[in-house]
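Hi R.,

Quick one: here's the SDR family NAD(P)-dependent oxidoreductase sequence you asked about.
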Amino acid sequence: MKRKTALVTGASRGIGRAAAYAFARAGYDLVLNCAHSKKELEAFACGLKEEFRIETLCCCGDIGDHAFVEQMFEKINGFCGGVDVLINNAGISHIGLLSEMSYEEWERILHTNLTSVFSCCKLAIPHMVSQKSGRIMNISSDWGICGASCEVAYSATKGGINAFTKALAKELAPSNIQVNAVACGVIDTKMNACFNEEERRELEEEIPAGAFGKPEDVAQFLLQLASAPAYLTGQVISFDGGWI
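And here's the predicted structure, written out as C-alpha coordinates:
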Protein backbone atom coordinates (compact mmCIF):
# COMPACT_ATOMS: atom_id res chain seq x y z
CA MET A 1 0.00 0.00 0.00
CA LYS A 2 1.38 3.38 -1.05
CA ARG A 3 2.28 5.66 1.83
CA LYS A 4 0.69 9.07 2.04
CA THR A 5 2.82 12.15 1.52
CA ALA A 6 2.73 15.34 3.58
CA LEU A 7 4.20 18.69 2.54
CA VAL A 8 5.35 20.91 5.40
CA THR A 9 6.49 24.46 4.69
CA GLY A 10 8.82 26.19 7.12
CA ALA A 11 10.04 22.79 8.26
CA SER A 12 13.54 23.59 9.49
CA ARG A 13 12.49 24.73 12.98
CA GLY A 14 9.64 25.30 15.40
CA ILE A 15 6.18 24.01 14.59
CA GLY A 16 7.16 22.90 11.08
CA ARG A 17 10.04 20.76 12.30
CA ALA A 18 7.90 19.20 15.02
CA ALA A 19 5.12 18.50 12.51
CA ALA A 20 7.57 16.85 10.12
CA TYR A 21 8.81 14.57 12.90
CA ALA A 22 5.26 13.66 14.00
CA PHE A 23 4.13 12.79 10.47
CA ALA A 24 7.32 10.84 9.75
CA ARG A 25 6.77 8.81 12.92
CA ALA A 26 3.21 8.14 11.72
CA GLY A 27 4.56 6.70 8.47
CA TYR A 28 4.11 9.57 6.02
CA ASP A 29 6.61 10.31 3.28
CA LEU A 30 7.62 13.96 3.48
CA VAL A 31 8.27 16.98 1.32
CA LEU A 32 10.04 19.58 3.45
CA ASN A 33 10.53 23.24 2.65
CA CYS A 34 12.54 26.03 4.19
CA ALA A 35 13.90 29.33 2.94
CA HIS A 36 17.46 29.49 4.23
CA SER A 37 18.57 26.50 6.35
CA LYS A 38 19.27 24.08 3.51
CA LYS A 39 22.02 22.02 5.17
CA GLU A 40 20.10 21.82 8.45
CA LEU A 41 16.91 20.73 6.68
CA GLU A 42 18.69 18.10 4.60
CA ALA A 43 20.38 16.66 7.70
CA PHE A 44 17.02 16.58 9.48
CA ALA A 45 15.36 14.86 6.51
CA CYS A 46 18.16 12.31 6.31
CA GLY A 47 17.69 11.50 9.99
CA LEU A 48 13.95 11.03 9.55
CA LYS A 49 14.51 8.77 6.56
CA GLU A 50 16.89 6.55 8.51
CA GLU A 51 14.81 6.47 11.71
CA PHE A 52 11.38 5.86 10.21
CA ARG A 53 12.21 4.25 6.83
CA ILE A 54 10.30 6.85 4.86
CA GLU A 55 11.10 8.81 1.71
CA THR A 56 11.90 12.53 1.90
CA LEU A 57 12.29 15.41 -0.55
CA CYS A 58 13.80 18.77 0.46
CA CYS A 59 12.87 21.92 -1.47
CA CYS A 60 14.70 24.99 -0.25
CA GLY A 61 13.60 28.40 -1.46
CA ASP A 62 11.28 31.36 -0.96
CA ILE A 63 7.81 29.93 -0.44
CA GLY A 64 6.36 33.41 -1.02
CA ASP A 65 7.63 33.33 -4.62
CA HIS A 66 4.98 31.70 -6.81
CA ALA A 67 7.56 30.74 -9.45
CA PHE A 68 9.55 28.80 -6.83
CA VAL A 69 6.40 27.02 -5.63
CA GLU A 70 5.65 25.98 -9.21
CA GLN A 71 9.16 24.52 -9.49
CA MET A 72 8.72 22.79 -6.13
CA PHE A 73 5.51 21.10 -7.25
CA GLU A 74 7.18 19.91 -10.44
CA LYS A 75 9.67 18.09 -8.19
CA ILE A 76 6.83 16.83 -6.00
CA ASN A 77 4.99 15.42 -8.99
CA GLY A 78 8.10 13.46 -9.93
CA PHE A 79 8.67 12.38 -6.32
CA CYS A 80 5.22 11.10 -5.40
CA GLY A 81 2.62 12.35 -7.89
CA GLY A 82 1.11 14.83 -5.43
CA VAL A 83 0.63 15.45 -1.73
CA ASP A 84 -2.13 14.04 0.44
CA VAL A 85 -1.59 16.46 3.33
CA LEU A 86 -0.53 20.09 3.03
CA ILE A 87 0.64 21.96 6.13
CA ASN A 88 1.07 25.66 5.40
CA ASN A 89 3.30 26.61 8.28
CA ALA A 90 5.91 29.02 6.90
CA GLY A 91 5.63 32.47 8.40
CA ILE A 92 7.52 35.51 9.60
CA SER A 93 6.62 38.26 12.06
CA HIS A 94 7.19 42.00 12.15
CA ILE A 95 6.97 44.02 15.35
CA GLY A 96 6.67 47.79 15.11
CA LEU A 97 4.33 50.66 14.38
CA LEU A 98 2.54 50.45 11.05
CA SER A 99 3.49 54.07 10.35
CA GLU A 100 7.16 53.04 10.52
CA MET A 101 6.81 49.92 8.40
CA SER A 102 8.19 50.13 4.86
CA TYR A 103 6.29 48.99 1.80
CA GLU A 104 9.01 46.38 1.17
CA GLU A 105 8.52 44.96 4.69
CA TRP A 106 4.77 44.83 4.11
CA GLU A 107 5.23 43.01 0.81
CA ARG A 108 7.66 40.51 2.36
CA ILE A 109 5.35 39.48 5.19
CA LEU A 110 2.33 39.38 2.88
CA HIS A 111 4.04 37.08 0.39
CA THR A 112 5.66 34.83 2.99
CA ASN A 113 2.60 34.42 5.22
CA LEU A 114 -0.35 34.63 2.84
CA THR A 115 0.64 34.37 -0.82
CA SER A 116 2.51 31.15 0.02
CA VAL A 117 -0.75 29.63 1.24
CA PHE A 118 -2.47 30.57 -2.02
CA SER A 119 0.36 29.15 -4.13
CA CYS A 120 0.70 25.86 -2.27
CA CYS A 121 -3.05 25.27 -2.14
CA LYS A 122 -3.53 26.12 -5.81
CA LEU A 123 -0.90 23.61 -6.86
CA ALA A 124 -1.78 20.88 -4.36
CA ILE A 125 -5.51 20.87 -5.06
CA PRO A 126 -5.59 19.21 -8.53
CA HIS A 127 -4.06 15.98 -7.21
CA MET A 128 -6.34 15.99 -4.18
CA VAL A 129 -9.40 16.51 -6.37
CA SER A 130 -8.34 13.65 -8.64
CA GLN A 131 -7.98 11.41 -5.57
CA LYS A 132 -11.21 12.72 -4.01
CA SER A 133 -9.37 13.15 -0.72
CA GLY A 134 -6.92 15.51 0.94
CA ARG A 135 -6.20 17.54 4.04
CA ILE A 136 -5.06 21.15 4.11
CA MET A 137 -4.02 22.64 7.44
CA ASN A 138 -3.02 26.27 7.75
CA ILE A 139 -1.04 27.55 10.72
CA SER A 140 -2.67 30.78 11.87
CA SER A 141 -2.56 32.82 15.07
CA ASP A 142 -4.82 34.27 17.73
CA TRP A 143 -3.75 37.64 16.33
CA GLY A 144 -5.61 36.76 13.15
CA ILE A 145 -8.77 36.62 15.26
CA CYS A 146 -8.37 39.62 17.57
CA GLY A 147 -5.40 41.57 16.19
CA ALA A 148 -2.29 42.78 18.01
CA SER A 149 -0.94 46.29 18.44
CA CYS A 150 2.44 46.72 16.73
CA GLU A 151 1.81 43.54 14.73
CA VAL A 152 -0.72 44.90 12.25
CA ALA A 153 0.80 43.28 9.17
CA TYR A 154 1.22 39.91 10.86
CA SER A 155 -2.34 40.08 12.20
CA ALA A 156 -3.63 40.97 8.74
CA THR A 157 -1.95 38.00 7.09
CA LYS A 158 -3.24 35.59 9.73
CA GLY A 159 -6.74 37.06 9.47
CA GLY A 160 -6.47 36.53 5.74
CA ILE A 161 -5.52 32.90 6.32
CA ASN A 162 -8.58 32.43 8.52
CA ALA A 163 -10.95 33.80 5.87
CA PHE A 164 -9.11 31.89 3.15
CA THR A 165 -9.54 28.66 5.15
CA LYS A 166 -13.28 29.09 5.61
CA ALA A 167 -13.89 29.96 1.96
CA LEU A 168 -11.68 27.23 0.48
CA ALA A 169 -13.24 24.61 2.74
CA LYS A 170 -16.64 25.34 1.21
CA GLU A 171 -15.15 25.12 -2.27
CA LEU A 172 -13.46 21.77 -1.68
CA ALA A 173 -15.91 19.95 0.59
CA PRO A 174 -17.73 18.34 -2.37
CA SER A 175 -14.39 16.78 -3.36
CA ASN A 176 -13.86 15.31 0.14
CA ILE A 177 -10.97 17.69 0.89
CA GLN A 178 -10.93 19.18 4.36
CA VAL A 179 -9.43 22.62 5.06
CA ASN A 180 -8.85 23.85 8.60
CA ALA A 181 -6.66 26.40 10.38
CA VAL A 182 -4.97 26.17 13.76
CA ALA A 183 -4.82 29.58 15.42
CA CYS A 184 -1.87 29.28 17.76
CA GLY A 185 -1.35 31.26 20.91
CA VAL A 186 2.11 31.70 22.38
CA ILE A 187 4.17 28.72 21.27
CA ASP A 188 7.72 28.26 22.56
CA THR A 189 9.53 28.84 19.26
CA LYS A 190 12.31 31.06 17.97
CA MET A 191 9.69 33.57 16.82
CA ASN A 192 8.73 34.13 20.47
CA ALA A 193 12.29 34.14 21.80
CA CYS A 194 12.15 37.94 21.90
CA PHE A 195 10.70 37.89 25.44
CA ASN A 196 13.04 38.31 28.38
CA GLU A 197 12.51 36.23 31.53
CA GLU A 198 10.29 38.82 33.23
CA GLU A 199 8.14 39.33 30.15
CA ARG A 200 7.84 35.58 29.74
CA ARG A 201 6.67 35.12 33.35
CA GLU A 202 4.11 37.91 32.99
CA LEU A 203 2.80 36.41 29.77
CA GLU A 204 2.60 32.93 31.25
CA GLU A 205 0.49 34.36 34.07
CA GLU A 206 -2.01 35.63 31.48
CA ILE A 207 -2.42 32.18 29.93
CA PRO A 208 -4.93 30.03 31.84
CA ALA A 209 -2.88 26.91 31.08
CA GLY A 210 0.04 28.63 32.80
CA ALA A 211 2.70 28.04 30.15
CA PHE A 212 3.71 28.57 26.54
CA GLY A 213 2.60 25.85 24.18
CA LYS A 214 5.15 23.43 22.76
CA PRO A 215 5.73 22.91 19.03
CA GLU A 216 5.28 19.18 19.67
CA ASP A 217 1.79 19.84 21.05
CA VAL A 218 0.78 21.64 17.86
CA ALA A 219 2.32 18.86 15.78
CA GLN A 220 0.33 16.21 17.60
CA PHE A 221 -2.86 18.17 17.04
CA LEU A 222 -2.09 18.50 13.33
CA LEU A 223 -1.63 14.74 13.13
CA GLN A 224 -5.02 14.27 14.78
CA LEU A 225 -6.61 16.70 12.31
CA ALA A 226 -5.15 14.67 9.45
CA SER A 227 -7.29 11.70 10.52
CA ALA A 228 -10.29 13.57 11.94
CA PRO A 229 -13.80 12.90 10.58
CA ALA A 230 -14.37 14.48 7.16
CA TYR A 231 -17.21 16.57 8.58
CA LEU A 232 -14.64 18.70 10.39
CA THR A 233 -13.81 21.37 7.82
CA GLY A 234 -13.81 25.14 7.47
CA GLN A 235 -12.79 25.66 11.09
CA VAL A 236 -10.34 28.07 12.70
CA ILE A 237 -9.39 26.26 15.89
CA SER A 238 -7.68 28.20 18.66
CA PHE A 239 -4.75 26.36 20.23
CA ASP A 240 -3.74 28.73 22.98
CA GLY A 241 -4.22 27.24 26.45
CA GLY A 242 -7.43 29.25 26.90
CA TRP A 243 -5.64 32.57 26.43
CA ILE A 244 -7.98 34.38 24.00
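The chain has a mean pLDDT of 95.

Cheers,
M.
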